[in-house]
Amino acid sequence: MINRPDYIEAIEPFIDKPLVKILAGVRRCGKSTIFEMLKEEFLRRGISEDHIISKRYTEMDIPENITAKQMYDELVEAMQGKGHCYLLLDEIQEIDGWEKAVNSLLEGADADIYVTGSNSKLMSSEISTYLTGRYVSIPVYTLSFKEYLDFKAGSTLSRRELLEEYIRFGGFPIIALSEYDEQSAYQIVNGIYHTVVSRDIVKRHRINKQDLFDRVVKYIIENMGKTFSANSISTFLKSEHRKVSVESIYNYLRWLEQAFIIYPCERYDLQGKSILKTQEKYYLSDVSLKYALLGYNRKMLDGAMENIVFLELKRRGYDVFIGKNDTKEIDFVATRRDEKIYVQVCVQIPATSDREVGNLMEIRDHYPKYVVTLNEMDTGIENGIKIVHLVDFLLAETW
């Protein structure tokens, strides 16, 4: 097992606090491994192994239609006579009404509770109803480039070569742990995607016209990092003689978001200091999802870089927006409490355009401004704007 210490660090302040710790992210992003790491941390602290109760609700030995009440009773029985216990409940969204059971355990049992799931409904208003102010959400993402290097510690490749591999293969831990060729890697990612779609979306939401749903998803993935609307998708599909309502498209977007296939990125008006409700963009939970569905070609590189930078900002706890400054666009405006950074992303800075640097120069505040590029020859500082290689941006301790 290769450790991902950033997650233990994120959980650590909440250990033994009367809060449910919710770890949520796309399937196969490593949540179960984080639970293994957490168990090791408990053992290191001297907690007896029989006081750590782990349950994975996708295992074959769990009854298929187990109720929340049965789950509750089973856990209470497992804790009987042991005193303070630690509950690690993996993929809990498989149990209808789990939040009521967890709330009862929180109130009536001597337990420190941790749950994982692959559906963002774990962080929705339904949970707030039962766990008002008594839960903390810790999002889990696929591997950062820093983590990818840890997974590849035995590799003879240089950092730059490993970056190329990371851009091509993405950050699913199962891919990083082995040496797959491109076809095999994308085959595995394709399997992850279809599990999410068939089990977490099509089956759960009873989608009858899966071919239409698949076409909408393909359009969304083809247009990652570009602005589009439900109306524009509907109009495009009409041109292919396919009919799907705008309301259905909104539902599809919401369900993809809930399953962590996509993340929304809203537009922020830098002059009016307000979030705009139109023309948001979407990014994938991992760039490899796009290649697995559409194949890889070099024209995708700009979008892949943007996606990687977006996820890195999210991993570090930033709220991320597209910046609108009058008629100019900033790729990302990222805020975290009283911090803010501006980021432009490009494979290389065009010799005939000053868009990347020029758009940032028009912002008159003193927050850090970056252009992130893949071209070594472009790096440096121009008018106070840092032009950095993607490797250096992803591995920087702070920005």
From TrEMBL:
Residues 199-346 form the DUF4143 domain. Pfam families: AAA_14, DUF4143. Signal peptide: none annotated. InterPro entries: AAA_14, DUF4143, P-loop_NTPase. It comes from the Bacteria. Residues 20-149 form the AAA domain. This is ATPase.
